[in-house]
Amino acid sequence: MVFPISFWLLFAAAMIISSIGFKNYVWFISLGYGFSIAGLGILMPILFGQSLTLGTGLCCLLFLIYGLRLGGYLAIREFKSATYNQNMKGEIKDGKTIPLGVKIAIWVTCAALYVLQVLPVFYRLLNGQGSNPWVYIGAAVMLFGIVFESVADWQKNAAKKINPRRFVDTGLYRIVRCPNYLGELIFWTGVILTGIGGLSGAGQWAMALLGYAGIVFVMFSGARRLEIRQNKNYGSAPEYQHYVKTVPIMIPFVPLYSVEKHKWLVA
Asked: For the chain, N or C: smaller number of CB within 10 Å?
């Protein structure tokens, strides 16, 4: 499959922005992730200004909002939250012992994933398909995902201020144990919906679905990592045991309560 120059420009932008991971390798998948999506949301209207429509412009704006919100939230947590950094000490490696070649592989893979994730909107613009009802339906789902994830993050911060030593089981955390990750999945599901009627051929759909599968994998990997950490911190508490046995880990009403034993979900 031949990729146009505009695709490689998106990839170059994601590479440049996510290169902050060389400062701290975790940033490849945190700050680099959020700000890369925001950057791609800015770059696509520049590349496709003539074919931009109200619907596709709205999608690009939502990429920008999503990326800035996520990147800003992670940056504040990284640089301002002493509690978070204390809790993560020993949980996350500093990356100093990771070989340069491995860091480069992570960098390239992450940048490629970020581009794949926005392909439904990119291909619609590239194909000059304009906006159809699916663009607006997808955009509405994207907006709901942003709000859902934002509320989950706010509720967790509020609960931790009251009792930083207790797991969070209030608000959206009564529905699923990882509502912030669920918000991510909702957002990217909306992005996939925007591609309906705008993508051309199996090749474009295969690339777009590859990006969607990639972020689903990343979210479940994050849920597994969180579950392992919470089991270590709260596993002896009876109320925690009741919580994890009755509240699904990621998807509401789907009785999947644990992914800890799924070692293929490499964190």
From this structure: N
Whole-angstrom distance, CA of residue 180 vs CA of residue 186 = 10
Which residue type occupies 29? Answer: I
**Which amino acid belongs to residue 67?**
G
- The DSSP bridge partners found for residue 89 are 92
Q: Is 17 exposed, middle or buried (0-12, 13-18, 19+ CB in 10 A)?
A: buried
Cα–Cα dist 208/243, whole Å:
36
Compute the distance between CA of residue 117 and CA of residue 6 in angstroms, rounded to an integer.
15
Token couple for 196: 């309906």
pTM over 0.85: yes
CA distances from 25 to 55, 251, 265 (A): 36, 29, 19
Q: Are 197 and 132 in contact (CB under 8 A)?
A: yes
For 166-198, the pLDDT digits (tens) are 999 999 999 999 999 999 999 999 999 999 999
**Ranges of each domain in the chain:** 5-246
Per the CB < 8 A criterion, the answer to whether 130 and 56 are in contact is: yes
Place of tokens 């613009």: 125
Contacts of 194 (CB under 8 A, 6+ apart): 55, 59, 120, 121, 124, 134, 135, 137, 138, 139, 142
